[in-house]
Design brief:
The structure is a homodimer. The first copy, chain A, has 7 helices and 3 strands, in the order αβααββαααα. With about 190 residues, chain A is mostly helical. The model of chain A has no long low-confidence stretch (mean pLDDT about 95).
DNA sequence: CAGATCATGTAATGCGTTACATGATTTC
DNA sequence: GAAATCATGTAACGCATTACATGATCTG
């Protein structure tokens, strides 16, 4: 029920479906993602419901763009969502599920390898986030004069960084404990 | 594609669908959730594919239980999944999406209220996790002698706690910044 | 006897992914 | 002329939620 709202939010400035697709890749990845094949029909549906209006616009290259614009009904729906209090999705964290059952492999080294690989991927993700943060800080004017919109977008980025850091910290802590267990086991066998 | 694997993992000991439903509520909530209405057909499908086998068993109260048991094919599928490396779901974090668009309300106090409410809900969640941790530490024998399975389940819990703490920390940091902005605005107006 | 818990399921609907189809323009 | 980018979409399938349907047993 939220892709609708996210598209409405993104359409506070008129844009074509294709543009929104790139926005998911660039700035919204952290908290949501949608394929173009989902975006296009969703925009059509929102238009049919009177939330959006569209017109054709020529493209500098490639076929004509269908540019969507937010209508009053859409703006009201967006505001209702924003005023409805924090929404939570039911958790879906496959890698923690894997860890949960990892003893099935009967190989403590496999668990260690798994968490190491997890840490590597989280480091890469964190690096991407931090690169964005650098870019913002760089082109950013002075920090207090920033607009509310930019401030909130920056806060969302900070949230992603905070969680990635926490997960990495957990990896380090967990690896330490796993290795301590391995050492204890090896001295017990010897 | 993962509920299948999670059910296979849970069925390393035979159980009925209803039992698995409660397990999601009790110990797996942190990383996954499924309704009974999704669990029952999924179990049937896995049986048809030869991953599981089932038999009827009498219940102490209520209708007969259908108890499922893991077959070799199911165990192999489970292992393939565990060996396939850490899987990530595409992020879906509605409350960060809301924050991202929150300036639409044009009311800085609304953003502050939103993050406060978020913090309250995260504190409640963290308290639940910590209660589980207490329970584990309490009934737990000595920490090094714990089984691999219990160790991994504990690690999964620690992951949930780490993330909840990080989100709460981010709330505090963000609230501080939001309030500083408000103060700056008010002195500027005065 | 009412309400909670145990226990299994189906049906309808909606959300999301993957695969497929098309075609123009720009860059190398 | 090949590959990348711009741009729109449809179709099939699978995953997830909500609502509905049924009925036994236990607890207060």
């Amino acid at each position: 029920m939220s892709l609708d709202h996210i598209l409405l939010g993104m359409l506070r400035e008129p844009a074509a479906g294709y543009d929104l697709g790139r926005r998911f890749e660039e700035s919204a990845r952290m908290f949501w993602f949608a394929e173009l094949s989902q975006i296009y029909p969703t925009l059509k549906r929102l238009e049919k419901r009177g939330m959006l209006r569209s017109r054709e616009a020529p493209s500098s290259r490639g076929p004509a763009r269908r540019v969507y614009e937010l209508m009053d009904a859409g703006r009201e729906e967006l505001r209702r969502w924003l005023e409805s209090g924090p929404q939570f999705a039911t958790a879906r964290i496959p890698h923690i599920a894997q860890l949960f059952f990892m003893d099935e492999l009967g190989d403590p080294e496999a668990t260690i390898g798994f968490v190491e690989s997890l840490a590597a991927q989280l480091r890469a993700r964190l690096a991407r986030y931090e690169a964005i943060e650098e870019r913002i800080r760089g082109c950013g004017d002075d920090w207090a004069a920033i607009s509310d919109r930019d401030f909130n977008e920056y806060s969302a980025l900070r949230a992603g960084i905070a969680v990635a850091e926490a997960r990495l910290g957990w990896c380090a802590e967990t690896l330490e404990r796993l290795r301590a267990r391995q050492r204890a086991r090896q001295t017990a066998t010897a």
